[in-house]
Protein: 4-hydroxy-2-oxoheptanedioate aldolase
Amino acid sequence: MYQKVNKVRLAHKEGRMAMGTWVQMASPEIVEVVGYQGYDYVIIDMEHGHFGMDMATAMIRAADATGLTPIVRVPNKDESMILKVLDAGAMGVLVPGVTTKEQAEKVVRAAKYWPNGMRGTCPWTRSTQYNATDWSAHVKWSNEETMVWLLVEGEEGVQNFDQILTVPDIDGIMMGPFDLSQTLGIPGQLDHPLLHETLQTMVDQAARKNIDIIAPMLLESTQQEIEKSTHKWRDLGCKIITVGGDRAILSIGFRSFLDHAQKATEAAKTKENV
Structure:
């Protein structure tokens, strides 16, 4: 039976941080570029990306072709959407807007087959190689390897964090520092000691339940800034980090190239006027 390698789990076994990125643009080609550059995983973003299931499936195929582990951020907590992306071959889901234990339980129920959950069953899907895979083997592999990541958001999510952590089969939780800073009454103060202390507490709480805290998108644009941010999240105890994203990287890259060209033009003008 053909089985894909979960690169996030592999990184953990090898004792290194799993490195991934976001793709929000409707482009299998960008997903291929990410895979060929050596990332472990990609988050295919259906919440902020302007595409539907057909394109998402093509992007999952592109991830498979390059050995990249595809995680899909679904647009909402709808159980049928979770089922669709997993049937299409996603190796995990990132579900936004989770604020309670009950919501987390529903996500797990939708993402895992019985006895771990109640995921809908159909042997004729892409995830089973269209019934080329033994069903019982597929169920066992999926329950072990399919990852459930949650975006725990807002004041209610922070208040219920302890309870959410008690739900079995959650693999990772992503916390947005901007959202968390606002909840703590220090909006945008990302270097504030209270934010750092709160994040450390949450990482430690999650680790005790064998749940990873996923470092969110790093928007830094220089090598020094990226290294500093990566070290910060690693020191907090994070084992999964999301570096940039296609829109951010393109924007930063185009801006940088334009700046260099404009400076060169200005320098040439200055020389001419001397």
Summary: The chain has one domain: 7-247. DSSP finds twelve helices and eight strands in the chain. The domain at 7-247 is CATH 3.20.20.60 (TIM Barrel). The longest helix spans residues 246-273.
